[in-house]
Amino acid sequence: MDTVGLWSLVRFAHVAGAALWVGGQLALSLVILPLARHLLAPEAKDVFTAAAGRRFGLLTGAVFLPVQLGTGWAMAWHRGVTWASLAEPGYGRTLAAKLALFVVVMLAAAAHGIAHAKGRPDLARGLAVLSLVGSLGVVLLATALPVT
Question: What's the whole-model pTM score?
Answer without folding.
Answer: 0.89
